[in-house]
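Worked Example 4.2. Consider the chain below.
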Amino acid sequence: MVYVDPKNLGYEPYWLRWVGKRTNVVEREELIRLFQKYVPGSIDLICNGLRDGKPTEKLKTIVPFTNLNMARRLAVLYQYFVMPDLQISLPDVLWSSSLIL
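Applying the procedure from the previous section yields the following structure tokens:
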């Protein structure tokens, strides 16, 4: 078994696998476009304290998150809000996503 630290792996492999499972081609392309526009900059600011590639003060969080954990939570929340017909309550989603930690 090979162990790779999440800090070294990053969130891109998880994201690519998740977005690749989306069956709607238009939705997949739009998700990729929005992801490339917003997520890397947001994660850089929150995790690394970088704004437009320049060091700034790192944002403080109550619970420390890795960039992979934030990408997972984004995927779970997106799936919950876009697919309301799944009959899943928000506490169930939050509980199940906390198991991924």
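Helices lie at 6-9, 12-20, 25-48, 67-82, 90-100. The chain has a mean pLDDT of 80. Compare this with Example 4.1 before moving on.
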